[in-house]
Design brief:
By secondary structure, this protein is of the alpha+beta class. It is built from two helices and four strands. It binds zinc ion.
Length: 71
């Protein structure tokens, strides 16, 4: 009986060590990870939200690349 309790304790200790060693799910909520978003802007012609790096800026604001021909 004492051997069974010792085995269960050993399994529990290994499980605790593995839990501590492996990365937890809460690690995804770190501030560094949270800042990895894509800044978006709103097209003033069609109202669609798009990546700011892909948007074209003119006098009235941002617009899609598809409106370049019309402008
Ligand atoms: Zn647009």
């Amino acid at each position: 009986m004492a051997r069974l309790i010792l085995i269960i304790c050993a399994i529990g200790l290994v499980w605790l060590l593995l839990r501590r060693a492996l990365p937890r799910r809460e690690a995804d909520d770190r501030p560094g990870k949270r800042e990895q978003y894509t800044p978006t802007v709103r097209c003033h012609i069609c109202g669609a939200y798009l990546d700011r790096r892909l948007a074209r800026r003119d006098q009235t604001g941002y617009c899609c690349q598809s409106h370049d021909d019309n402008a």
